[in-house]
Design brief:
mainly beta; seven-stranded mixed beta sheet
Length: about 110
């Protein structure tokens, strides 16, 4: 199983980034996919999830600013982040979950400067 996240970087407050996660080694379409993040000194938190059926949910702090999407044909999940804030600075991780199967990729660092 491999989840390869990309798209992180340094951006000014108010800017946008699009994170992508390329997935291999699983039956992607049956997995719920999610983005988590972990800021320095903080616990990892769920940012957004998209179920196998396409239902989405977001942490309150990113609602209206972020959009999670999946492409089952391309076997990717993306997170479009707009109006970024310094508090969005974190390492972002892609996650695939199916019942008790939980897969993680290496993170991609997002740094938002004020």
């Amino acid at each position: 199983v491999q989840l390869q996240a990309s798209g992180g970087g340094l951006v000014q407050a108010g800017g946008s980034l699009r994170l992508s996660c390329a997935v291999s080694g699983i039956s992607f379409s049956i997995y719920d996919m999610a983005w988590y993040r972990q800021a320095p000194g903080k616990e990892r938190e769920l940012v957004a999830v998209i179920t196998s059926g396409g239902r989405t949910n977001y942490v309150d702090s990113v609602k209206g600013r972020c959009t999670i999407s999946r492409d089952d044909a391309k076997i990717t999940v993306s997170l479009q982040m707009n109006s970024l804030k310094p508090e969005d600075t974190a390492v972002y991780y892609c996650n695939a979950k199916y019942y008790n199967l939980n897969c993680w990729g290496r993170g991609t660092l997002v740094t938002v400067s004020s």
